[in-house]
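Bug report (template v2)

What were you trying to do?
Predict the complex of my protein with iron/sulfur cluster.

What happened?
Run completed; filing so the output is reviewed.

Input:
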Amino acid sequence: MSEKVRIPYETKEKDLKDMFLYPVAVEDQPRAAITLLGEMLKYKRSLKLYLDVCTHCGACVEQCHSYLGTKDPYNMPVARVDLVRSIYKKVFGPGPSFLRDWDGAKAISQETIDLWYTYFHQCNQCRRCAMFCPKGIDTAEVTIAIREILAHLGLVSRFHAGIVKNMNKTGNNMGTPHPAIMDGIEFLEEELKEETGLDIPIPMDQEGAEVLFNPSSSDLFNNTDGLMAVAKIFYKAGVSWTLSSQITETANFGLFFHEPTLREHSRRLVMAGKELGVKRLVAGECGHGWRTWRMFTQTLNGPLPFPVLHLFEEVLGYYRAGRIQFDKTKNPEVVTYHDPCNYARAGDLIQQPRELLAACVQNFKEMTPTAQYSFCCGGGSGILMDEAKDIRMALGQPKAECVRSTGAEILCAPCAICKAQLPDVMKHHKVDVKVKGLSDLLGRALIL
Ligand code: SF4
Ligand code: SF4
């Protein structure tokens, strides 16, 4: 696959304005992009460093699943960043202009903007290239910066704008209104009763609960086994918990293209916790969402009156304290583990899920490469839209081969985006494996 794939960005002007973004006329975009890049270089010192220090050694090239899966030269991490580096050298680089031109400097044009949009939406912001770069260049950070510039030109994908609109209106990315969520919860409580014979609640807006649990909204309707498992675990551990009607979404799409959106989503979460008077915020299975919780909640909206934990840290605490036990025989299949990029390379979650897997499955097989060297699923950075399906299947190819070589029957992938992307990738590349969250496996094996 090497044809140029561009995700549509014909976003309605009103939806852009709701994010305080204003479209720039096509002929003015190159000039405006230079102004925005210049402004950004003043406060993002890491961006300037990444543009300055690349030696073009090529160590990143074969480490990027986007390049490996598409063989498109612009998807090499170094070439992707060179799309910006060449412009940076022309306008902001040191020394005489003939030397800068000799060094690859190029004038910006409308084609540059087009290339930026195309190829910075084929980077999953997975950070794998940074693990191998001797200069520590993190292409994911460049992608985030350039998508922010594109947003300020009015070039936001319809999918991203739609998600933000849903979030603003309903507190979740799927745009599910509160009454529908309550109906869904009632249904899941009935399912729990049928399965266990017990009255296991999924509480909403319980003031003074110990934990505010914030799931991915897809867990309310698509990955319901995961949410029911969480309810069972809290019940068994004897911990009071609640969901919040203000926000039922761990994912935070602001990370992918727009810092004010990132900040606002995070603020909404913190406010929900404060209003309910909880002791802890606990995040559900979502890779990039967890990255925003771990890295930005305190810095953007702190100081916080409570700690912010991931579900796996919370559950591991119960397990180590002997408050919950598991019966491994309930998960007899060969299980392998996919490290979501934002857990392993940006969220300090490598050992905890493995300790929980060791407690709840009988046959665990580690994948190669693994942990912080694991390949991305190909769906990260918010490109999980139908229009990008062909490119996503290509981006997922290296991961499919890793999974195939384990011979596993179950692929544990505890992230909402991975859980949506990987079943299609496995089917497309003919790998016979079922994809499940870690919560699902914990729920199956929990001794009630
Ligand atoms: S590994 Fe780092 S220094 Fe080498 S080409 Fe890639 S980005 Fe540049
Ligand atoms: S962050 Fe991931 S997808 Fe992006 S260039 Fe690096 S390895 Fe490739």
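What did the reviewer find?
The chain has two domains: 13-158, 171-448. The pocket of iron/sulfur cluster (ligand 1) is lined by residues 54-60, 77-78, 133, 135, 137 (CB under 6 Å).
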